[in-house]
Amino acid sequence: MTTPRPTQKTFWLLVTHFPPNPSTAGLRAGSFARHAAENSWTGTILTVRQAGDPEGDDGDPAGIRVMRTPAPFSLHWRIDSLLDGGIADMRAMLTGARQAQTAPDVVIATGPPFNTFVAAQHLAKTHGVPLVLDYRDEWTLNPFDFVKRKPFDELLERRALRAASRVLFTTAGMRDAALLRFADEIGEKARILPNGWDPADFSHDNMQGRPPRLATSRKRLLFLGTLSEMLDPRPFLGALAHARRDDPELERRIVVRFTGRKTPEMEAALDAFPYPEMIERVGQVPRSGLEAQLTDSDAAILFTDERVGRYRPTKLYDYLRAGLPIVVWGHGGESGAIVEDTGTGIVTTSIDAVEKLVAAPTQVREKPRAAFLSAHRRDVLAARFFSLLDEVVAEHRFR
Asked: At the top level of CATH, which class does the domain 200-375 belong to?
């Protein structure tokens, strides 16, 4: 049973993964939670208990209650999978809400998965408070299979959008695509709140780039993140193999390190690469291990195609913060525009161009890079987020 709202404003945030889970969902939601108190907010995180989650509240942000509720196992998988993220996980978050000690002033859902949107819509209506939807990726417009789309998902998405007071997108491209499909439901409610970077992930907080890497015979090009259909290295690997066949000395000049998780399909692509001495594989590293990977590299690479054009991989911000020259391989899109606008790299499908950039890191221009990074610190973005919540709550109270 919840108690009346205190003077301090309170949010409920629904997210399927929360720190210490290292997912992108957890990074964004965790940032909001960490910076809530300094923006005069408190809140409850409604999430699903994952393997490795703490039993108590050790490490949870001050002033934030994290309700980690185990998902029930009573549903047949065919029924559970009818909703992206699962009906069981949605039930877990709703169970956590019934145990919350403070009623909300606003309910927020971040997705994917998008079972959070359905649950948050129900909770906002039940408590008579505004609903805010946060798209980290797309739902029915998503071109990739990691979001499960069922025949009635568009109906659910339209209902959630219609009920929302604000709809947040991480990029302008995502917002524009959504407005083309859901103009009537979104209207004037769309806002852009990008992802960002956290100074806590780096040992120094200046904007002067990275210390020089020790000279070696080969330059290292780093990919950091999950190799998957969404970030597909196969076109690059094909071009690299072709360049190596034409120039056998290339393997003495460059090596590519893939750090992070890899889907079985992408592991197979790396296995099939005909010049294994040119690639290195490192498993997933915690956030605390990012800096070591970045400082041990000469340049960084992102893989893009037309489907990824309106997205920005989170690791782009880590590359920028580290001061590495950046290769955007393929279709430029949002990531390519940032790299070109900040003077921090190139958009290309040429191995020659990649090698030239790796050999000439002085091409990185510090002023535009520093300005971009200052605007995309997670504490700065969290302040924008809570200012938006203040606006939503005020509108609701003065209707």
From this structure: alpha beta
